[in-house]
Amino acid sequence: MSFFRRKRLFTILLSLIILVGLIGFSISERNQLSSVEQFIQDGIGALQQVVLTPVTYVAGVADNIDEMKNLYQENQVLKENLSQYQQKVYEVQELTKENEELAAMLGKSESITDYEPIQASVIARNPDQWFKQVMLNKGEQHGVTKDMAVITAEGMIGKVQSTSQFTSRVLLLNGFDRSNRISVNVDLTDQTEDAKGFILGYNEEKEQLVLEFSDYYDEIPVDEVVFSSGLGGVFPKGLEIGTIEEVTTDQYGLTQVAYIKPSAALEGFNHVIIVDRTMPTIFEVEAEEGSGEE
């Protein structure tokens, strides 16, 4: 047993000596390797390539996955920032629009001299008549009564249809019919007198008001401005309603009819002015004169 142990120990020592010799010989500074060294080096290089290639590939895939995760997170952050930016832009646009509308309404209120203005805001729209009726935040407690005219900075948009103590419902011009007719004047540029007539309703197909003239006029140019005349006893005089787009006759050819484009937009507004005329109508003046009051 001792013989085999000594032989084994001798073999191990001899192997270590040879290995140390090879290592020392390999690291010595020489310009040329031996055949054995070349074989060993080539073998080690091939083994390293076999081992490192998949390791490098896996590491690259892991790096790509991490990079994709980072790009995804950055993309989500950018989307959120873009959404917030778009929301801010929308809010700024809405505030700018509202400020412009309020400024125009203020200027309109200051220019009104013949009637008392009551400023109001839209608080609701009728679901059944979305584009024809709106509800305002002013009512009887604020001096609003039925049939008062309602305007924006661009012109007349309708009239008060009904009231409660603190709100009022407005019928827009596109909901008018013969029962809501408006006495109007047409400012004829080349003539000394205005043309007179009545707004009798709204043509849904043309999206324009229908004006029927009281008399027959030789020439009524398009683009002439239509105003309330104040003779109907309901609306004040001088409220701009629209401009003439087309002049024709009725089906019998006896009555002149014009189609009027409203001056004011009938949707998209948030603030209005309810006008209460302070000047008496011609009917009120005649009634006072007939009563003999001094």
Automatic annotation (TrEMBL):
Keyword Cell division in record: no
Domain (Rod shape-determining protein MreC beta-barrel core): residue spans on this chain:
122-275
Coiled-coil residue windows: 61-95
GO biological process: one example: regulation of cell shape
The cross-references to Pfam families, in alphabetical order and at most eight, read: MreC (PF04085)
Q: Which domain of life is it from?
A: Bacteria
Can you quote a single GO CC term?
plasma membrane
Keyword terms, alphabetized? Cell shape, Coiled coil
* PANTHER family (alphabetical): CELL SHAPE-DETERMINING PROTEIN MREC
Family membership: Belongs to the MreC family.
Describe the function of this protein: Involved in formation and maintenance of cell shape.
Name the record gives this protein: Cell shape-determining protein MreC
Organism name:
Streptohalobacillus salinus
